[in-house]
Amino acid sequence: MTDEFTGVDAATKLDVDTIEAAAQRIAPHIIETPLLESPRLNDWLGFRLLIKPENLQHTGSFKLRGASNAIWSFNDDVSRVFAYSSGNHAQGVAHAATARGLHATILMPEDAPRVKIAGTRAFGGTVVTYDRYTENREEIGERMAAETGAVLIRPYEDTRIIAGQGTVGLEIAAQCAAMGVTPDHLVCCCGGGGLIAGIGIVIRTKMPTTQIWAAEPSGFDDTIRSLASGKREHADTSNDSICDAIVTPQPGEMTFAINLKTLAGGFAIEDPLALQSMAAAFHHLKLVVEPGGAVALAAVLDRRLPADAKIVVAVISGGNVDAGTFQQALATPPLL
């Protein structure tokens, strides 16, 4: 289904002005997260690392930004919304919908972290589950939204979502300017690609010398392979990864159209490294980070970036992690 907010043509019209309008719209509903750094990490790395901790958002991830922009863009005749999500978009939609007095139904994988299902319900969403390995959430979502008369809010294939996520990039650019620094590199997680697409639009305009890199789970590096081939590649969904938040079968059509123009490349992150990076974030930055939220940090800590790095930004995208997984991370051998 295509409307003015979906499709490649709509994606190509996204610009910094659209993202700045989104920032004004969602300002009352989100937290402006800081840029953090650890002198010990800087000394160990040999360059300056600035962390954008979106795990500090009200719902524990950046997804609140896009969901808020979409929901507060609706006309007043909208009363019901529907979304599909592995958990963070779910919580963002539930939180934003409740804030505007709308009813939200969310389709979530039956094996989603319990903390994400519980959080979605706590924010006022009605949860329906499915099997992510044998069922197609897009097909189910289209059908159930039509059956209930709800407006479908896709997790990344929507310009309102991409623009909302892009407000992370606006904050990074403004914060770097206030610090008097220009990063050589920026690393961000990539699942469907909405966050890094929105950030990329901003950074290409405001900090054009900064190279932008995607971080994906090993086995689900479909964006990295798509950048190499120039067309959208599929991941092998028989694989498994602890990085549940960014396990997607294929880059978004809209997001890849943007990312193909803005990204320098990417890094595939193995599960053990993601766990080690979660522990490093806890010990050195006092942050609780989920596996998928740690992959950008992991790429930096594993020294995957070019050797010219002097100032680097890494986006931590979320912190909604079950206690057992977090304990597993803390029990891993330390990176430093």
Write structural notes for this entry.
By secondary structure, the chain is α/β, with parallel strands linked by helices. It has two domains: 8-61 and 159-330, Rossmann fold (3-Layer(aba) Sandwich), CATH 3.40.50; 63-152, Rossmann fold (3-Layer(aba) Sandwich), CATH 3.40.50. It is 44% helix and 14% strand. The strands form two sheets. It has a five-stranded parallel β-sheet with strand order 1-9-6-7-8, with helices on both faces. The chain has a four-stranded parallel β-sheet with strand order 4-3-2-5, with helices on both faces. The model has no long low-confidence stretch (mean pLDDT 96).
Outline:
This protein is α/β, with parallel strands linked by helices and 336 residues long. It has 14 helices and 9 strands. The chain has 2 domains: 8-61 and 159-330, 3-Layer(aba) Sandwich (Rossmann fold), CATH 3.40.50; 63-152, 3-Layer(aba) Sandwich (Rossmann fold).
